Amino acid sequence: MASSSSEHLLSCPWTPVDIGDSQFLCKSWFGQTQYHLLLLDSDGLWEEQMEAEEIQSRAQELNRRLRASVEALVTAVTPCLTGGGSDHVTIQRRDGHMTLRLKSELAGMPFHWEFHCRPAPVATACVQLVRPLLVMSGALQRQTQLLFALLRRKDAEIQDYKENGAQLTRERLQTEPFVEETFRQDFMTKTFPSLLEEQESSLSLDSELQELYASATSRQNANSKRKRSEEEEEEEAEVEEENHQRGDAPAQKEAEKTRTPAPDAKKTTLPTMQQTAPSYPSAADRAAPKPKKKKTGLFR
Amino acid sequence: MASSSSEHLLSCPWTPVDIGDSQFLCKSWFGQTQYHLLLLDSDGLWEEQMEAEEIQSRAQELNRRLRASVEALVTAVTPCLTGGGSDHVTIQRRDGHMTLRLKSELAGMPFHWEFHCRPAPVATACVQLVRPLLVMSGALQRQTQLLFALLRRKDAEIQDYKENGAQLTRERLQTEPFVEETFRQDFMTKTFPSLLEEQESSLSLDSELQELYASATSRQNANSKRKRSEEEEEEEAEVEEENHQRGDAPAQKEAEKTRTPAPDAKKTTLPTMQQTAPSYPSAADRAAPKPKKKKTGLFR
User: Fold this and answer.
1) Do A146 and B191 lie within an 8 Å CB cutoff?
2) In what side-by-side order are the strands of the sheet with A89-94?
3) Domain boundaries, chain A
4) Among A110-114, A281-285, B22-26, B217-221, whose mean pLDDT is lowest?
Protein backbone atom coordinates (compact mmCIF):
# COMPACT_ATOMS: atom_id res chain seq x y z
CA MET A 1 0.00 0.00 0.00
CA ALA A 2 1.61 3.24 -1.14
CA SER A 3 1.86 6.07 1.38
CA SER A 4 -0.44 8.92 0.68
CA SER A 5 1.18 12.14 -0.51
CA SER A 6 -0.42 14.11 2.28
CA GLU A 7 1.55 11.99 4.73
CA HIS A 8 4.81 13.00 3.04
CA LEU A 9 3.88 16.67 3.16
CA LEU A 10 2.91 16.27 6.81
CA SER A 11 6.37 15.03 7.69
CA CYS A 12 8.09 18.01 6.07
CA PRO A 13 9.14 20.72 8.49
CA TRP A 14 7.98 24.34 8.43
CA THR A 15 10.72 26.79 7.52
CA PRO A 16 10.60 30.54 8.05
CA VAL A 17 10.76 32.53 4.82
CA ASP A 18 10.83 36.29 4.41
CA ILE A 19 9.30 37.52 1.20
CA GLY A 20 9.35 41.25 0.75
CA ASP A 21 8.11 42.70 4.03
CA SER A 22 6.12 39.62 4.95
CA GLN A 23 7.10 36.71 7.12
CA PHE A 24 5.87 33.24 6.40
CA LEU A 25 6.26 29.74 7.65
CA CYS A 26 6.55 27.63 4.56
CA LYS A 27 6.18 23.96 3.69
CA SER A 28 7.03 23.01 0.20
CA TRP A 29 7.49 19.89 -1.78
CA PHE A 30 9.05 20.13 -5.20
CA GLY A 31 8.90 16.92 -7.20
CA GLN A 32 10.47 16.40 -10.54
CA THR A 33 7.49 17.75 -12.46
CA GLN A 34 5.15 19.11 -9.80
CA TYR A 35 5.03 21.03 -6.59
CA HIS A 36 2.86 21.61 -3.57
CA LEU A 37 3.22 24.67 -1.41
CA LEU A 38 1.81 25.82 1.93
CA LEU A 39 2.48 29.30 3.32
CA LEU A 40 1.37 30.49 6.75
CA ASP A 41 1.20 34.19 7.54
CA SER A 42 -0.77 36.43 9.84
CA ASP A 43 -3.77 36.31 7.49
CA GLY A 44 -4.04 32.58 7.17
CA LEU A 45 -2.81 29.51 5.34
CA TRP A 46 -2.17 29.68 1.61
CA GLU A 47 -1.76 26.85 -0.83
CA GLU A 48 -0.77 26.10 -4.37
CA GLN A 49 -0.50 22.75 -6.08
CA MET A 50 0.75 22.52 -9.65
CA GLU A 51 1.38 19.65 -12.03
CA ALA A 52 3.50 19.38 -15.13
CA GLU A 53 1.06 20.70 -17.73
CA GLU A 54 0.02 23.70 -15.68
CA ILE A 55 3.65 24.52 -14.92
CA GLN A 56 4.58 24.39 -18.60
CA SER A 57 1.67 26.53 -19.57
CA ARG A 58 2.32 29.25 -17.00
CA ALA A 59 6.05 29.28 -17.77
CA GLN A 60 5.22 29.84 -21.44
CA GLU A 61 2.84 32.67 -20.64
CA LEU A 62 5.39 34.47 -18.47
CA ASN A 63 8.48 33.77 -20.59
CA ARG A 64 7.46 33.72 -24.23
CA ARG A 65 10.85 32.91 -25.66
CA LEU A 66 11.73 30.25 -23.14
CA ARG A 67 11.96 26.62 -24.03
CA ALA A 68 12.67 24.43 -21.02
CA SER A 69 11.68 21.10 -19.54
CA VAL A 70 9.32 21.00 -16.58
CA GLU A 71 12.16 19.63 -14.46
CA ALA A 72 14.30 22.64 -15.26
CA LEU A 73 11.40 24.99 -14.50
CA VAL A 74 10.74 23.43 -11.13
CA THR A 75 14.43 23.60 -10.29
CA ALA A 76 14.48 27.31 -11.16
CA VAL A 77 11.70 28.20 -8.71
CA THR A 78 12.70 26.02 -5.78
CA PRO A 79 15.31 28.32 -4.19
CA CYS A 80 12.79 31.11 -3.70
CA LEU A 81 10.98 29.19 -1.02
CA THR A 82 13.80 27.31 0.56
CA GLY A 83 15.66 30.31 1.86
CA GLY A 84 17.57 31.68 -1.08
CA GLY A 85 16.76 34.09 -3.86
CA SER A 86 13.88 35.85 -2.18
CA ASP A 87 15.17 39.30 -3.07
CA HIS A 88 13.37 39.39 -6.35
CA VAL A 89 10.01 38.30 -5.03
CA THR A 90 7.02 40.60 -4.72
CA ILE A 91 3.64 39.86 -3.18
CA GLN A 92 0.24 40.94 -4.36
CA ARG A 93 -2.83 40.27 -2.26
CA ARG A 94 -6.11 40.72 -4.01
CA ASP A 95 -9.65 39.31 -3.88
CA GLY A 96 -8.66 36.79 -1.29
CA HIS A 97 -5.77 35.45 -3.38
CA MET A 98 -2.05 35.95 -2.99
CA THR A 99 0.37 36.09 -5.90
CA LEU A 100 4.12 35.80 -5.41
CA ARG A 101 6.01 37.09 -8.43
CA LEU A 102 9.61 36.16 -8.69
CA LYS A 103 12.45 36.74 -11.09
CA SER A 104 15.02 34.03 -11.24
CA GLU A 105 17.40 32.65 -13.80
CA LEU A 106 17.35 29.65 -16.06
CA ALA A 107 20.30 28.72 -18.24
CA GLY A 108 21.65 32.24 -17.97
CA MET A 109 18.39 33.83 -19.07
CA PRO A 110 15.99 35.81 -16.89
CA PHE A 111 13.11 33.64 -15.81
CA HIS A 112 9.82 34.90 -14.42
CA TRP A 113 7.53 32.83 -12.26
CA GLU A 114 4.36 33.36 -10.25
CA PHE A 115 2.93 31.34 -7.40
CA HIS A 116 -0.84 31.79 -7.38
CA CYS A 117 -1.89 30.96 -3.84
CA ARG A 118 -5.38 30.59 -2.54
CA PRO A 119 -6.61 29.95 1.00
CA ALA A 120 -5.93 26.33 1.91
CA PRO A 121 -8.84 24.11 3.00
CA VAL A 122 -9.45 24.45 6.74
CA ALA A 123 -8.92 20.70 7.13
CA THR A 124 -5.38 21.17 5.82
CA ALA A 125 -4.71 23.80 8.49
CA CYS A 126 -6.04 21.42 11.13
CA VAL A 127 -3.98 18.45 9.98
CA GLN A 128 -0.77 20.36 9.23
CA LEU A 129 -0.83 22.80 12.13
CA VAL A 130 -3.59 22.70 14.73
CA ARG A 131 -3.36 19.03 15.68
CA PRO A 132 0.43 18.86 15.79
CA LEU A 133 0.57 22.11 17.76
CA LEU A 134 -1.97 20.81 20.30
CA VAL A 135 0.16 17.71 20.75
CA MET A 136 3.34 19.78 21.02
CA SER A 137 1.81 22.04 23.66
CA GLY A 138 0.84 18.97 25.64
CA ALA A 139 4.37 17.59 25.30
CA LEU A 140 6.04 20.79 26.40
CA GLN A 141 3.69 21.02 29.33
CA ARG A 142 4.62 17.48 30.34
CA GLN A 143 8.27 18.51 30.17
CA THR A 144 7.64 21.37 32.60
CA GLN A 145 5.89 18.99 34.98
CA LEU A 146 8.86 16.63 34.92
CA LEU A 147 11.20 19.55 35.54
CA PHE A 148 9.08 20.77 38.48
CA ALA A 149 9.40 17.30 40.00
CA LEU A 150 13.17 17.30 39.50
CA LEU A 151 13.47 20.71 41.13
CA ARG A 152 11.53 19.52 44.16
CA ARG A 153 13.84 16.52 44.46
CA LYS A 154 16.88 18.76 44.38
CA ASP A 155 15.33 20.97 47.02
CA ALA A 156 14.82 17.90 49.21
CA GLU A 157 18.48 17.01 48.76
CA ILE A 158 19.58 20.56 49.60
CA GLN A 159 17.31 20.59 52.63
CA ASP A 160 18.96 17.45 53.92
CA TYR A 161 22.42 19.01 53.60
CA LYS A 162 21.28 22.14 55.41
CA GLU A 163 19.58 20.26 58.22
CA ASN A 164 22.90 18.60 58.90
CA GLY A 165 24.73 21.85 59.26
CA ALA A 166 26.22 22.10 55.78
CA GLN A 167 27.28 25.61 54.80
CA LEU A 168 27.92 27.19 51.44
CA THR A 169 31.40 28.56 50.78
CA ARG A 170 29.93 30.90 48.19
CA GLU A 171 26.71 32.46 49.49
CA ARG A 172 25.67 33.56 46.04
CA LEU A 173 25.11 29.93 45.09
CA GLN A 174 22.16 29.67 47.47
CA THR A 175 18.82 29.11 45.75
CA GLU A 176 15.30 29.58 47.05
CA PRO A 177 13.16 26.48 47.40
CA PHE A 178 11.20 26.10 44.19
CA VAL A 179 7.49 26.94 44.41
CA GLU A 180 5.54 26.00 41.31
CA GLU A 181 2.79 28.55 41.85
CA THR A 182 5.27 31.41 42.22
CA PHE A 183 7.10 30.29 39.10
CA ARG A 184 3.88 30.23 37.10
CA GLN A 185 2.71 33.59 38.35
CA ASP A 186 6.03 35.27 37.62
CA PHE A 187 5.99 33.71 34.19
CA MET A 188 2.48 34.86 33.34
CA THR A 189 2.87 38.37 34.71
CA LYS A 190 6.44 39.20 33.67
CA THR A 191 8.14 36.76 31.32
CA PHE A 192 5.27 35.91 28.98
CA PRO A 193 4.27 39.52 28.24
CA SER A 194 7.90 40.33 27.35
CA LEU A 195 8.06 37.25 25.16
CA LEU A 196 4.87 38.32 23.40
CA GLU A 197 6.37 41.71 22.66
CA GLU A 198 9.59 40.20 21.28
CA GLN A 199 7.79 37.66 19.15
CA GLU A 200 5.14 40.06 17.94
CA SER A 201 4.02 38.95 14.50
CA SER A 202 7.00 36.65 14.15
CA LEU A 203 6.38 33.13 12.98
CA SER A 204 8.97 30.62 14.01
CA LEU A 205 9.66 27.05 15.04
CA ASP A 206 13.13 26.42 16.39
CA SER A 207 14.93 23.10 16.36
CA GLU A 208 13.33 21.67 19.48
CA LEU A 209 9.84 22.60 18.32
CA GLN A 210 10.63 21.15 14.88
CA GLU A 211 11.60 17.90 16.56
CA LEU A 212 8.35 17.79 18.54
CA TYR A 213 6.42 18.61 15.36
CA ALA A 214 8.13 15.77 13.49
CA SER A 215 7.28 13.26 16.24
CA ALA A 216 3.68 14.41 16.50
CA THR A 217 3.15 14.23 12.74
CA SER A 218 4.87 10.88 12.28
CA ARG A 219 2.35 9.62 14.83
CA GLN A 220 -0.54 11.15 12.86
CA ASN A 221 0.79 9.46 9.73
CA ALA A 222 1.12 6.10 11.47
CA ASN A 223 -2.47 6.38 12.66
CA SER A 224 -3.72 7.29 9.18
CA LYS A 225 -1.93 4.32 7.66
CA ARG A 226 -3.26 1.98 10.32
CA LYS A 227 -6.83 3.22 9.87
CA ARG A 228 -6.62 2.88 6.09
CA SER A 229 -5.16 -0.57 6.52
CA GLU A 230 -7.93 -1.62 8.89
CA GLU A 231 -10.58 -0.26 6.55
CA GLU A 232 -9.06 -2.16 3.66
CA GLU A 233 -8.84 -5.36 5.66
CA GLU A 234 -12.47 -4.98 6.64
CA GLU A 235 -13.49 -4.45 3.04
CA GLU A 236 -11.48 -7.47 1.92
CA ALA A 237 -13.03 -9.56 4.68
CA GLU A 238 -16.49 -8.45 3.62
CA VAL A 239 -15.82 -9.26 -0.01
CA GLU A 240 -14.39 -12.66 0.88
CA GLU A 241 -17.37 -13.35 3.10
CA GLU A 242 -19.76 -12.47 0.30
CA ASN A 243 -17.80 -14.62 -2.12
CA HIS A 244 -17.76 -17.47 0.34
CA GLN A 245 -21.49 -17.23 0.80
CA ARG A 246 -21.99 -17.13 -2.94
CA GLY A 247 -19.68 -20.11 -3.35
CA ASP A 248 -17.18 -18.18 -5.53
CA ALA A 249 -13.41 -18.51 -5.29
CA PRO A 250 -11.88 -15.81 -3.15
CA ALA A 251 -11.44 -12.90 -5.50
CA GLN A 252 -8.38 -11.01 -4.37
CA LYS A 253 -8.26 -8.80 -7.42
CA GLU A 254 -11.85 -7.81 -6.89
CA ALA A 255 -11.11 -6.89 -3.31
CA GLU A 256 -8.27 -4.66 -4.45
CA LYS A 257 -10.53 -2.81 -6.85
CA THR A 258 -13.05 -1.97 -4.15
CA ARG A 259 -10.50 0.00 -2.18
CA THR A 260 -12.11 3.40 -2.13
CA PRO A 261 -11.55 6.01 0.55
CA ALA A 262 -14.25 6.21 3.24
CA PRO A 263 -16.92 8.69 2.07
CA ASP A 264 -16.35 11.04 4.94
CA ALA A 265 -12.59 11.10 4.68
CA LYS A 266 -11.44 14.65 4.23
CA LYS A 267 -7.82 14.16 3.30
CA THR A 268 -6.10 16.49 0.90
CA THR A 269 -5.05 14.55 -2.20
CA LEU A 270 -1.55 15.41 -3.34
CA PRO A 271 0.73 14.22 -6.11
CA THR A 272 3.17 11.46 -5.16
CA MET A 273 5.95 12.91 -3.11
CA GLN A 274 9.59 12.08 -3.61
CA GLN A 275 11.26 14.18 -0.95
CA THR A 276 12.84 12.19 1.86
CA ALA A 277 11.25 12.91 5.22
CA PRO A 278 13.68 14.05 7.90
CA SER A 279 14.67 11.11 10.09
CA TYR A 280 13.75 11.70 13.70
CA PRO A 281 13.35 8.88 16.22
CA SER A 282 9.87 7.95 15.30
CA ALA A 283 6.98 6.57 17.25
CA ALA A 284 5.75 5.22 13.93
CA ASP A 285 8.32 2.47 14.17
CA ARG A 286 6.62 1.02 17.21
CA ALA A 287 3.59 -1.20 17.09
CA ALA A 288 0.58 1.08 17.39
CA PRO A 289 -2.18 -0.14 19.71
CA LYS A 290 -5.87 0.39 18.98
CA PRO A 291 -7.06 3.85 20.00
CA LYS A 292 -8.71 3.94 23.39
CA LYS A 293 -11.84 6.08 23.54
CA LYS A 294 -10.98 8.15 26.56
CA LYS A 295 -13.34 10.79 27.76
CA THR A 296 -11.09 13.57 28.91
CA GLY A 297 -12.84 15.52 31.64
CA LEU A 298 -11.03 18.80 31.96
CA PHE A 299 -11.05 21.94 33.95
CA ARG A 300 -13.51 24.46 32.56
CA MET B 1 -14.57 52.54 19.23
CA ALA B 2 -16.54 49.34 19.78
CA SER B 3 -14.58 46.12 20.05
CA SER B 4 -15.07 43.78 17.16
CA SER B 5 -17.06 40.63 17.85
CA SER B 6 -14.28 38.44 16.60
CA GLU B 7 -12.12 39.77 19.42
CA HIS B 8 -14.71 38.64 21.96
CA LEU B 9 -14.87 35.18 20.44
CA LEU B 10 -11.08 35.05 20.44
CA SER B 11 -10.96 35.62 24.17
CA CYS B 12 -13.37 32.75 24.89
CA PRO B 13 -11.73 29.52 25.96
CA TRP B 14 -11.99 26.17 24.20
CA THR B 15 -13.92 23.57 26.16
CA PRO B 16 -13.91 19.84 25.51
CA VAL B 17 -17.33 18.47 24.57
CA ASP B 18 -18.27 14.89 23.86
CA ILE B 19 -21.12 14.50 21.44
CA GLY B 20 -22.09 10.95 20.71
CA ASP B 21 -18.86 9.10 20.03
CA SER B 22 -17.03 12.19 18.87
CA GLN B 23 -14.78 14.48 20.85
CA PHE B 24 -14.64 18.17 20.12
CA LEU B 25 -13.05 21.30 21.40
CA CYS B 26 -15.77 23.89 21.34
CA LYS B 27 -15.98 27.67 21.45
CA SER B 28 -19.39 29.13 21.63
CA TRP B 29 -20.90 32.48 22.18
CA PHE B 30 -24.63 32.69 22.85
CA GLY B 31 -26.02 36.18 22.81
CA GLN B 32 -29.55 37.12 23.64
CA THR B 33 -30.78 36.56 20.11
CA GLN B 34 -27.84 35.07 18.25
CA TYR B 35 -25.04 32.60 18.53
CA HIS B 36 -21.69 31.76 17.04
CA LEU B 37 -20.20 28.32 17.32
CA LEU B 38 -16.80 26.78 16.53
CA LEU B 39 -16.15 23.04 16.87
CA LEU B 40 -12.75 21.41 16.38
CA ASP B 41 -12.49 17.69 15.73
CA SER B 42 -10.11 15.36 13.97
CA ASP B 43 -11.57 16.31 10.58
CA GLY B 44 -11.25 20.06 10.91
CA LEU B 45 -12.88 23.20 12.23
CA TRP B 46 -16.64 23.64 11.96
CA GLU B 47 -18.67 26.78 12.30
CA GLU B 48 -22.21 28.04 12.58
CA GLN B 49 -23.42 31.59 13.05
CA MET B 50 -27.11 32.32 13.46
CA GLU B 51 -29.12 35.45 14.04
CA ALA B 52 -32.58 36.01 15.42
CA GLU B 53 -34.64 35.55 12.24
CA GLU B 54 -32.85 32.38 11.19
CA ILE B 55 -33.16 30.96 14.69
CA GLN B 56 -36.91 31.64 14.79
CA SER B 57 -37.39 30.14 11.40
CA ARG B 58 -35.50 26.92 12.14
CA ALA B 59 -37.20 26.53 15.52
CA GLN B 60 -40.57 26.80 13.79
CA GLU B 61 -39.62 24.20 11.20
CA LEU B 62 -38.45 21.72 13.82
CA ASN B 63 -41.16 22.39 16.41
CA ARG B 64 -44.38 23.27 14.62
CA ARG B 65 -46.47 23.84 17.70
CA LEU B 66 -43.90 25.83 19.58
CA ARG B 67 -44.26 29.52 20.26
CA ALA B 68 -41.22 30.98 21.99
CA SER B 69 -39.08 34.09 21.95
CA VAL B 70 -35.65 33.93 20.38
CA GLU B 71 -34.13 34.49 23.81
CA ALA B 72 -35.89 31.43 25.17
CA LEU B 73 -34.80 29.39 22.14
CA VAL B 74 -31.18 30.36 22.55
CA THR B 75 -31.33 29.53 26.25
CA ALA B 76 -32.72 26.10 25.44
CA VAL B 77 -29.82 25.14 23.19
CA THR B 78 -26.95 26.58 25.21
CA PRO B 79 -26.44 23.69 27.66
CA CYS B 80 -25.76 21.22 24.85
CA LEU B 81 -22.45 22.83 24.07
CA THR B 82 -21.37 23.99 27.46
CA GLY B 83 -21.03 20.58 28.99
CA GLY B 84 -24.51 19.53 29.95
CA GLY B 85 -27.31 17.81 28.12
CA SER B 86 -25.24 16.16 25.42
CA ASP B 87 -26.93 12.80 25.81
CA HIS B 88 -29.62 13.61 23.33
CA VAL B 89 -27.35 14.85 20.58
CA THR B 90 -26.62 12.96 17.38
CA ILE B 91 -24.20 13.84 14.63
CA GLN B 92 -24.61 13.47 10.91
CA ARG B 93 -21.73 14.14 8.56
CA ARG B 94 -22.62 14.50 4.93
CA ASP B 95 -21.40 16.31 1.83
CA GLY B 96 -18.77 18.16 3.81
CA HIS B 97 -21.32 19.44 6.34
CA MET B 98 -21.97 18.38 9.90
CA THR B 99 -25.40 18.47 11.54
CA LEU B 100 -25.85 18.14 15.29
CA ARG B 101 -29.40 17.20 16.20
CA LEU B 102 -30.44 17.67 19.77
CA LYS B 103 -33.52 17.19 21.84
CA SER B 104 -33.89 19.50 24.75
CA GLU B 105 -36.73 21.03 26.71
CA LEU B 106 -38.44 24.37 26.69
CA ALA B 107 -41.15 25.28 29.19
CA GLY B 108 -41.73 21.61 29.95
CA MET B 109 -42.19 20.72 26.28
CA PRO B 110 -39.81 18.70 24.11
CA PHE B 111 -37.72 20.99 21.97
CA HIS B 112 -35.75 19.94 18.90
CA TRP B 113 -32.81 21.86 17.55
CA GLU B 114 -30.16 21.38 14.86
CA PHE B 115 -26.79 23.01 14.50
CA HIS B 116 -25.88 23.08 10.81
CA CYS B 117 -22.11 23.38 10.75
CA ARG B 118 -19.91 23.96 7.77
CA PRO B 119 -16.14 24.10 7.51
CA ALA B 120 -14.90 27.37 9.02
CA PRO B 121 -12.80 29.72 6.89
CA VAL B 122 -9.12 28.79 7.12
CA ALA B 123 -8.35 32.30 8.38
CA THR B 124 -10.59 31.58 11.38
CA ALA B 125 -8.58 28.44 12.16
CA CYS B 126 -5.38 30.45 11.94
CA VAL B 127 -6.59 33.26 14.18
CA GLN B 128 -8.40 31.10 16.72
CA LEU B 129 -5.97 28.20 16.90
CA VAL B 130 -2.76 28.23 14.89
CA ARG B 131 -1.39 31.59 16.00
CA PRO B 132 -2.26 31.21 19.68
CA LEU B 133 -0.86 27.68 19.69
CA LEU B 134 2.40 28.83 18.10
CA VAL B 135 2.70 31.47 20.79
CA MET B 136 1.85 28.98 23.52
CA SER B 137 4.44 26.52 22.27
CA GLY B 138 7.02 29.28 22.38
CA ALA B 139 5.95 30.20 25.90
CA LEU B 140 6.13 26.66 27.19
CA GLN B 141 9.49 26.24 25.59
CA ARG B 142 10.71 29.39 27.36
CA GLN B 143 9.43 27.92 30.62
CA THR B 144 11.52 24.79 30.09
CA GLN B 145 14.59 26.93 29.41
CA LEU B 146 14.06 28.83 32.67
CA LEU B 147 13.64 25.56 34.52
CA PHE B 148 16.84 24.14 32.98
CA ALA B 149 18.69 27.22 34.26
CA LEU B 150 17.19 26.79 37.74
CA LEU B 151 18.22 23.14 37.81
CA ARG B 152 21.77 24.04 36.91
CA ARG B 153 21.87 26.60 39.71
CA LYS B 154 20.67 24.03 42.21
CA ASP B 155 23.31 21.61 40.97
CA ALA B 156 25.94 24.30 41.56
CA GLU B 157 24.67 24.75 45.10
CA ILE B 158 24.69 21.00 45.72
CA GLN B 159 28.18 20.77 44.29
CA ASP B 160 29.41 23.39 46.73
CA TYR B 161 27.97 21.47 49.68
CA LYS B 162 29.57 18.26 48.48
CA GLU B 163 32.96 19.82 47.89
CA ASN B 164 32.93 20.90 51.49
CA GLY B 165 32.38 17.42 52.78
CA ALA B 166 28.63 17.56 53.31
CA GLN B 167 26.93 14.17 53.49
CA LEU B 168 23.35 13.13 52.99
CA THR B 169 21.62 11.46 55.93
CA ARG B 170 19.22 9.80 53.49
CA GLU B 171 21.10 8.47 50.46
CA ARG B 172 17.94 8.15 48.43
CA LEU B 173 17.66 11.93 48.29
CA GLN B 174 20.74 12.15 46.10
CA THR B 175 20.07 13.44 42.59
CA GLU B 176 22.18 13.22 39.44
CA PRO B 177 23.51 16.47 38.02
CA PHE B 178 21.00 17.66 35.45
CA VAL B 179 22.06 17.31 31.81
CA GLU B 180 19.75 19.03 29.36
CA GLU B 181 20.65 16.83 26.42
CA THR B 182 19.95 13.64 28.36
CA PHE B 183 16.64 15.02 29.56
CA ARG B 184 15.58 15.89 25.99
CA GLN B 185 16.64 12.54 24.59
CA ASP B 186 14.83 10.59 27.28
CA PHE B 187 11.78 12.70 26.70
CA MET B 188 11.75 12.23 22.93
CA THR B 189 12.46 8.51 23.02
CA LYS B 190 10.41 7.40 26.02
CA THR B 191 8.05 9.95 27.52
CA PHE B 192 6.71 11.60 24.37
CA PRO B 193 5.76 8.35 22.60
CA SER B 194 3.83 7.21 25.70
CA LEU B 195 2.12 10.58 25.87
CA LEU B 196 1.14 10.30 22.19
CA GLU B 197 -0.44 6.92 22.85
CA GLU B 198 -2.38 8.20 25.86
CA GLN B 199 -3.58 11.28 24.07
CA GLU B 200 -4.40 9.52 20.81
CA SER B 201 -7.26 11.40 19.17
CA SER B 202 -8.01 13.27 22.36
CA LEU B 203 -8.48 17.01 22.12
CA SER B 204 -7.83 18.90 25.30
CA LEU B 205 -6.52 22.10 26.86
CA ASP B 206 -6.07 21.99 30.61
CA SER B 207 -6.13 25.01 32.92
CA GLU B 208 -2.53 26.04 32.37
CA LEU B 209 -2.83 25.82 28.61
CA GLN B 210 -6.12 27.74 28.81
CA GLU B 211 -4.31 30.47 30.71
CA LEU B 212 -1.56 30.68 28.10
CA TYR B 213 -4.20 30.71 25.37
CA ALA B 214 -6.04 33.58 27.06
CA SER B 215 -2.85 35.64 27.35
CA ALA B 216 -1.81 34.97 23.77
CA THR B 217 -5.23 35.91 22.40
CA SER B 218 -5.66 39.02 24.53
CA ARG B 219 -2.38 40.13 22.96
CA GLN B 220 -3.71 39.39 19.46
CA ASN B 221 -6.80 41.43 20.29
CA ALA B 222 -4.77 44.33 21.63
CA ASN B 223 -2.72 44.34 18.43
CA SER B 224 -5.82 44.30 16.24
CA LYS B 225 -7.30 47.22 18.15
CA ARG B 226 -4.07 49.15 17.95
CA LYS B 227 -3.71 48.56 14.20
CA ARG B 228 -7.31 49.58 13.58
CA SER B 229 -6.78 52.64 15.71
CA GLU B 230 -3.60 53.56 13.83
CA GLU B 231 -5.28 53.09 10.48
CA GLU B 232 -8.16 55.30 11.58
CA GLU B 233 -5.78 57.97 12.87
CA GLU B 234 -3.91 57.91 9.57
CA GLU B 235 -7.10 58.27 7.63
CA GLU B 236 -8.23 61.14 9.83
CA ALA B 237 -4.85 62.80 9.44
CA GLU B 238 -5.04 62.44 5.67
CA VAL B 239 -8.52 63.88 5.56
CA GLU B 240 -7.51 66.78 7.79
CA GLU B 241 -4.48 67.40 5.62
CA GLU B 242 -6.58 67.47 2.50
CA ASN B 243 -9.08 69.77 4.18
CA HIS B 244 -6.28 72.02 5.36
CA GLN B 245 -4.85 72.23 1.88
CA ARG B 246 -8.26 72.94 0.45
CA GLY B 247 -8.84 75.55 3.13
CA ASP B 248 -11.89 73.76 4.57
CA ALA B 249 -12.70 73.55 8.25
CA PRO B 250 -11.54 70.27 9.76
CA ALA B 251 -14.30 67.82 8.94
CA GLN B 252 -14.42 65.39 11.81
CA LYS B 253 -17.69 63.88 10.76
CA GLU B 254 -16.37 63.34 7.27
CA ALA B 255 -13.33 61.59 8.67
CA GLU B 256 -15.52 59.28 10.69
CA LYS B 257 -17.51 58.33 7.61
CA THR B 258 -14.40 57.31 5.71
CA ARG B 259 -13.53 54.61 8.22
CA THR B 260 -13.60 51.55 6.08
CA PRO B 261 -11.61 48.42 6.74
CA ALA B 262 -8.38 48.12 4.76
CA PRO B 263 -9.15 46.34 1.47
CA ASP B 264 -6.88 43.45 2.26
CA ALA B 265 -8.17 42.92 5.79
CA LYS B 266 -9.37 39.37 6.15
CA LYS B 267 -11.12 39.50 9.50
CA THR B 268 -14.21 37.43 10.20
CA THR B 269 -17.19 39.69 10.90
CA LEU B 270 -19.34 38.51 13.77
CA PRO B 271 -22.46 39.81 15.52
CA THR B 272 -21.86 41.94 18.60
CA MET B 273 -20.88 39.75 21.49
CA GLN B 274 -22.17 40.16 25.01
CA GLN B 275 -20.41 37.39 26.87
CA THR B 276 -17.90 38.59 29.42
CA ALA B 277 -14.40 37.48 28.59
CA PRO B 278 -12.64 35.55 31.37
CA SER B 279 -10.41 37.89 33.34
CA TYR B 280 -6.81 36.80 33.20
CA PRO B 281 -3.93 39.18 33.93
CA SER B 282 -3.76 40.74 30.54
CA ALA B 283 -0.92 42.11 28.50
CA ALA B 284 -3.56 44.21 26.78
CA ASP B 285 -3.62 46.50 29.80
CA ARG B 286 -0.05 47.54 29.19
CA ALA B 287 1.02 50.14 26.67
CA ALA B 288 1.80 48.24 23.49
CA PRO B 289 4.94 49.33 21.65
CA LYS B 290 5.20 49.45 17.84
CA PRO B 291 5.98 46.05 16.37
CA LYS B 292 9.63 45.51 15.55
CA LYS B 293 10.27 43.86 12.22
CA LYS B 294 12.59 41.07 13.29
CA LYS B 295 13.95 38.61 10.81
CA THR B 296 13.98 35.32 12.62
CA GLY B 297 16.67 33.13 11.17
CA LEU B 298 16.05 29.65 12.41
CA PHE B 299 17.39 26.20 12.31
CA ARG B 300 15.57 24.33 9.64
Assistant:
1) yes
2) A15-19, A22-30, A35-41, A44-50, A109-119, A97-106, A89-94
3) 2-120, 124-223
4) A281-285
B2-120, what's its fold? Dna Repair Protein Xrcc4; Chain: A, domain 1 (2.170.210)
Record: contact A130-B131, CB cut-off 8 A: no
Give the neighbor-by-neighbor strand order of the sheet with B109-119.
B15-19, B22-30, B35-41, B44-50, B109-119, B97-106, B89-94
Select from A145, A154, A156, A153 the least CA-distant residue to A180. A145
pLDDT of residue A6: 66
User: Residue A216: closest CA among chain B residues belongs to which residue?
Assistant: B196
Residues B178-187 have pLDDT tens digits of 999 999 999 9
Q: How far is CA B279 from CA A188, B134, B284, in A?
A: 13, 22, 11
How close does chain B come to A48, measured CA to CA in Å?
14
- C-beta atoms of A119 and B121 within 8 A: yes
Tens digit of pLDDT for each residue in A9-35?
Answer: 887 889 888 887 888 999 988 877 788
**ipTM score for this prediction:** 0.76
CB contacts < 8 A, A to B, total 310
